[in-house]
Design a protein that fits this description.
The protein is built from 24 helices and 29 strands.
């Protein structure tokens, strides 16, 4: 995170102190609510004397070495004699100690403590010292211990009066225009600076070697404008005024270029690099013109130091580092040279206009609209567009049924992995096994799994256990044997007995006949709604009677059994004002042609989704033989719903369910499927077990679109294919987990369409990004780094 600290020293100086020091801390320039702290600094005349002594020895040190080795035109003698490098080194150390002692004054502690509380060593911090006092501007503020504690911080200087210049135009897109002035180079090597600029990728340097005043002025007025002004050569400060030596005979103050420089700034000049000596006077003149930022050398600079600094700075800056980070990097790289060139790291300094944002190499290049990296708003627009297109495409193919099988298979998978449930304690199944069938006389059975005699024995035996409901899930479309009057009496008089018939197709004389003489209130149909893949996932509660069928009842077997059971609890089914079948607080929402993953569903009759018990086994099973032999627990029959059905494979009453094929599971017997259906009704009414529900069309659209946005958003967040792959995988797992968790609450969520939208939107954003990069690569001269 980037932070800005502006320390205003007011009108103070070292002789009288700085009584009104303020520090403002903000995230970025222009923060509406920066934090502010107030303190002061005491007078420090000894620090002023120490600095002046240091400056004299520093300049004498390089005068004795010979001015031609520096970028100063000459160094006047300070009259200092008989000092050693050791003495100079000790003086430099004393200056550092004295500066930190001053900044550690108790009156400055409020600011120091505020900085330590608010700032993080990991932050990139710009620290700007605002002062008009020349001596305060010359102090080596970067020696403050603060900059050791915050390795990504860098200082800059500013005058106290500043503002913004509204640009009249900008330089051409795609490259950084640099006006490089190579002035008087007597005794120094400016060619090294030129070589760096010539090989700088993304730059368009124009070189003026020892130009005349007229030529320099004309280039500054260039209507194309400049991004960077670079000067290498000799310069110096004369009583707060900077002077550059543009050739062997001519020198200029910047006031002599004032109008030309103002014009260049208004046309986009953002940065001046004055790689020459004693540049504070030059920076002051440029600050008066409101230039955004200047890099100067605060004192006499050796030629090799100037070259090395510029090399490291321009490499870091053009490589993507911020301006302040690049200066700090370049300064610290000079440390290895300080054995020969003392205090080299003290020399470079930024002069910043706080009203302007620091320049970046990428911003100076100003890529063309076609090649420019997408802004955050454009990135969001890209994600939004891709997500809408992916959602529309997924919903379109879903609407015509292309995804239906995928959605049903995903539904089956989630149903199978639910935590197991115990069998419903209100139900018991009497299974007619293959052995039970074979133990009967085939002629007496007449094609059924139970003969009249065996059925009579079964019903008589059950009556002794007093079940609440007996459901006979066996077709008997033939008359009762006249010799079995007891069975005929059971059929007519046993109020707990429910039988079935089959409605079948809508053709003439379809279906199967009901057991003769069964009252209408105890007759039901056994028809099951079958999906296109043959799987039973729905439950039919009722349908309009079919006059062409042998079976004319309008109530399903499962609903009839549940009605009889619940009537004993004084619970009855009714239609609420919305037309929904309801008993107690349980509402059985009717399926529509477009429900959940179903598209163009045959929704005739009153259908609901079947929420199988998670174990796959809805009720305890006993065999006919065990019942007739009294080899069972009476509690398995008393006051329960007893369903009688055939499980013998020879009768082929087996159908696929969501559990079929899972870990070797076979198709489920029809009587077990009916048990699941009865259990669903009873559990919803008496146990508040959730019925399956689904999203409305607009909620489905919002759900799928939301995951589509996630897929596109991940592309913006992730910085590498590996990160994107991991993040997408995590998003897929979260989607899967959300759908599974909601299914446990009864919600059937669109898993497959959401996964496709997640992947599709992400792929769309990636494809667009790749296209943009290819477009950039195919445009000569505008390739982005």
């Amino acid at each position: 995170m980037s932070k800005l600290v502006v320390i205003n020293l007011g009108s103070g100086d070292l002789q009288t102190g700085c009584p009104n020091v303020t520090a403002q801390i903000s995230q970025t320039k222009g923060s509406h609510h920066p934090m502010k702290s107030v303190g002061s600094l005491p007078l420090a005349p000894e620090l002023e004397q120490l600095y002046k002594r240091w400056q004299l020895l520093y300049r004498e040190f390089y005068r004795e070495r010979g001015a031609p080795s520096t970028r100063a035109i000459s160094i006047e003698s300070a009259g200092v004699t008989h000092f050693s490098e050791v003495e100079f080194s000790e003086l430099s150390q004393q200056l550092k100690i004295q500066l930190n002692a001053w900044l550690n004054s108790e009156s400055f502690h409020p600011i120091d403590r505020k900085l330590s509380r608010v700032l993080d060593p990991a932050d990139e911090i710009r620290v700007i010292f605002e002062t008009n006092n020349d001596l305060l501007r010359r102090l080596p503020w970067d020696l403050w211990n603060f900059f050791e504690d915050y390795p990504k911080a860098e200082m800059a200087l500013s005058v106290q009066e500043y503002g913004q210049v509204k640009p009249q135009s900008e330089t051409a897109v795609g490259s950084v225009r640099i006006l490089a002035i190579l002035g008087n180079s007597t005794g120094i090597d400016v060619q090294a600076d030129r070589n760096l600029l010539e090989t700088l990728e993304g730059a368009e340097p124009i070189f003026l070697e020892e130009p005349t005043h007229q030529i320099l002025d004309e280039h500054l007025w260039d209507p194309q404008g400049w991004d960077i002004l670079f000067f290498a050569g000799h310069s110096q400060t004369e009583q707060d005024t900077g002077r550059i030596y543009i050739n062997q005979t001519d020198s200029l103050t910047l006031d002599q270029l004032r109008n030309a420089l103002k014009q260049a700034i208004s046309r986009g000049l953002k940065l001046a690099i004055l790689n020459s000596c004693d540049g504070l006077g030059l920076a002051q003149s440029l600050a008066d013109l409101q230039i955004p930022q200047v890099i100067i050398m605060r004192e006499v600079v050796p030629d090799v130091i100037a070259q090395e600094f510029f090399r490291h700075f321009i490499t870091a800056f053009s490589g993507g580092q911020s301006l302040h980070a690049s200066v700090r990097t370049a300064r610290e790289r000079l440390e290895r040279l300080e054995a020969d060139y003392p205090c080299a790291t003290w020399l470079p300094v930024i002069c910043q206009n706080p009203a302007e944002e620091p320049a970046t190499w990428q911003a100076l290049r100003r890529p063309s609209p076609k090649n420019r990296p997408l802004s955050r708003l454009q990135q969001l627009q890209t994600v939004l567009t891709a997500s809408v297109m992916a959602t529309a495409l997924v919903l379109g193919v879903r609407q015509v049924g292309v995804l239906q099988q995928w959605e049903l298979q995903a539904f089956d998978h989630l149903m199978r992995i639910r935590p197991a449930e115990k069998p419903d304690p209100r139900l018991t199944i009497v299974s007619i096994t293959e052995s039970d069938v074979q133990n009967q006389d085939p002629t007496e059975r007449r094609g059924s799994s139970l003969s009249d005699q065996t059925l009579t024995q079964l019903l008589d035996k059950l009556q002794t256990y007093q079940p609440r409901v007996i459901g006979l899930d066996i077709y008997r479309d033939f008359p009762i044997d006249p010799d079995q009057s007891a069975l005929a009496a059971q059929v007519q008089e046993n109020a707990s007995l429910i039988t079935i018939c089959e409605v079948g197709e809508t053709s003439e004389q379809s279906g199967t006949r009901p057991l003769p003489n069964i009252p209408a209130e105890r007759l039901s149909f056994s028809d099951l709604p079958v999906d296109t893949d043959g799987v039973i996932r729905r439950q039919l509660l009722g349908m309009a009677p079919n006059p062409k069928s042998f079976c004319t009842t309008d109530t399903s077997f499962s609903l009839r059994a549940a009605q009889h059971y619940l009537a004993a609890e004084d619970l009855f089914f009714e239609r609420n004002p919305d037309g929904v079948l309801q008993v107690g607080s349980a509402k059985f929402k009717q399926l529509a042609p477009h429900t959940g993953g179903y598209q163009q569903l045959d929704a005739r009759g009153y259908q609901v989704l079947l929420n199988y018990r998670a174990s796959g086994v809805a009720a305890t099973q006993i065999t006919l033989a065990d019942l007739l032999n009294d080899s069972i627990d009476a509690n398995l029959l008393r006051d329960r719903v007893i369903l009688i059905g055939t499980t013998a494979k020879s009768f082929k009453d087996y159908l696929p369910t969501p559990y079929t094929g899972a870990q070797g599971a076979e198709e489920m017997a029809g009587v077990m499927i009916h048990a699941h259906m009865v259990s669903q009704i009873l559990s919803a009414v008496l146990d508040q077990r959730p019925l399956l529900w689904w999203l409305s069309p607009w909620k489905t659209t919002a759900w799928i679109w939301g995951w589509s946005l996630v897929g596109g958003g991940l592309v913006l967040i992730c910085r590498s294919p590996l990160q994107l792959g991991l993040a997408s995988g995590a998003a897929g797992i979260i989607l899967y987990g959300a759908c599974f968790g909601l299914l446990l609450k009864g919600g059937w969520m669109p898993l497959a369409p959401s996964a496709l939208a997640l992947v599709g939107s992400g792929a769309g954003v990636v494809a667009y990004t790749v296209y943009q990069k290819k477009l950039q690569a195919s445009t000569p001269g505008l390739r982005l780094q």
